[in-house]
Design a protein that fits this description.
By secondary structure, the protein is mostly helical. The protein has a single domain, classed as Globins (Globin-like). The protein is 67% helix and 0% strand. It has five helices and no strands. The mean pLDDT is 93.
Length: 122
């Protein structure tokens, strides 16, 4: 039986599983590869643990401006739609409950906002 996202170990499992899927995805893997070298993935994952921990568990461990990192990557709504789809599939494969639902909602909102902001910059 699946459980809800309730602690930092759950967040790490979510992030690790999600980014494994990202790195295998035909559309998204090249985008991430152009920005994150293989030896820099541990740094990125640590940052994502803090980001999602803050969003889902209110750990308040993340500081930064995530949108800025997406400027100039040549990405659009197609990329964000795939990102949201993979995120939702990852959450659903591992968890169920209120926080899991919140995670999918937050990812969807991020995808919409980032996509819209990038489109408005064109």
């Amino acid at each position: 039986m699946k459980h809800d996202i309730s602690n930092t170990d759950d967040v790490k499992l979510l992030v690790d599983t999600f980014y494994t899927a990202i790195r295998q995805d035909a559309l998204l893997a090249p985008v991430f590869a152009q920005r994150i070298a293989d030896d820099k993935w541990p740094i990125h994952l640590e940052k994502m643990y803090r980001f999602w921990g803050t969003l889902l568990l209110q750990t308040q461990n993340y500081n930064g401006s995530p949108f800025d990192k997406h400027i100039g990557l040549g990405i659009d709504s197609t990329h964000f739609n795939q990102w949201v789809t993979l995120f939702g599939e990852t959450v659903d494969s591992l968890f169920e409950g209120e926080v899991a639902t919140l995670a999918k909602e937050r990812a969807n909102n991020i995808g919409l906002i980032f996509s819209h902001k990038l489109e408005s910059m064109k």
